[in-house]
Specification:
With 271 residues, this protein is mostly helical. It has one domain (2-269). Helix content is 77%, strand content 0%. It is built from ten helices and no strands. Helix 2 crosses helix 10 (250-269), helix 5 crosses helix 10 and helix 7 runs antiparallel to helix 8 (178-197). The longest helix has 29 residues, at 207-235. It is globular and about 60 Å long. The N and C termini lie far apart (41 Å). The relative contact order is 0.13.
């Protein structure tokens, strides 16, 4: 455990200040960062499915993912006609490409191509819209969400390693335990409770709000981790990639936010 912590430490020490800086800058800089994350995560997802035997069209998938990022940059006033026209052309093009490619399981390949776009770009891209919404609040709510996800993951990992015995869903993720899962939920609640009480969030939250956010981050966020573990298990690999020293791939680091970000964005839309 100690060696794993030391291996992860350099990326953590660089990554946390970098994300805070990008959040505060916002605009095209933050949108560009999220777009790069989506691009790398989508490629890793397609690589996982390629190992599993599928043949997704990476080029078309990436183009559609970047178009979704642009949509979130323009939110809530995207040019719907242009986007609809673009997606229509991409769908027709992908069908023609698959028809002439000669690959086996064409329907599966098309489903993986579009499914990856919706799963990663469609969900994680909401980070851009959430950050834009949070501009009036100095991006503090978005920071609080990211910190809560980080604390949830850290509590789940640490308490699970130290005291976790009974596995939660062993066939999907053999190392994740019930103790770790509960610790992650408590960590997410305490993080939001603490930041609300010291006035960091600057949005009035009652107990119901805190419980909803705890459900989103502590439960749904961890389920996002399980979903990615399911894909890795299917491909027979431990990590989605090796680009981040000690942390695996980009998708490994953002899997919880894929579920958390869109649900938090829906939540704040009703505040």
């Amino acid at each position: 455990m100690k060696s794993t912590f030391l291996t992860r430490l350099p990326i953590t020490l660089i990554g946390i200040p970098a994300v805070i800086y990008l959040l505060r800058e916002g605009g095209i800089i933050f949108a560009g960062f999220i777009s790069i994350v989506i691009f790398l995560s989508l490629i890793e997802f397609y690589d996982l499915k390629t190992i599993s035997g599928s043949r997704p069209n990476k080029f078309i998938g990436v183009l559609m993912a970047l178009a979704i990022c642009f949509m979130y940059i323009e939110f809530p006033n995207p040019n719907a006609i242009n986007l609809l026209s673009f997606f229509t052309i991409m769908i027709i093009l992908s069908l023609f490409v698959e028809m002439f490619s000669g690959h086996e399981n064409p329907l599966d390949n098309i489903n993986i191509t579009f499914g990856g776009v919706l799963y990663i770009a469609g969900l994680l891209g909401t980070m851009i819209a959430l950050r834009n919404w949070d501009s009036f609040n100095g991006t503090r709510f978005t920071m609080a969400m990211i910190f809560s996800v980080w604390l949830c993951d850290s509590c789940a990992y640490t308490f699970g390693m130290l005291w976790g015995k009974k596995k939660l869903i062993e066939r999907v993720s053999p190392k994740k335990t019930i103790v770790g899962f509960v610790a992650g939920i408590l960590g997410s609640f305490l993080s939001f409770y603490f930041m609300d009480n010291i006035g960091f969030i600057q949005i009035e939250l009652n107990l119901t709000h805190l419980l909803i956010l705890t459900f989103i981050v502590g439960i749904c966020g961890q389920l996002g981790d399980f979903v990615e573990s399911m894909f890795k298990r299917d491909a027979g690999v431990k990590d989605s990639g090796k680009i981040l020293l000690g942390h695996g791939g980009v998708l490994d680091r953002f899997d919880s936010l894929i579920f958390t970000s869109p649900l938090v964005f829906i939540f704040v839309s009703f505040l």
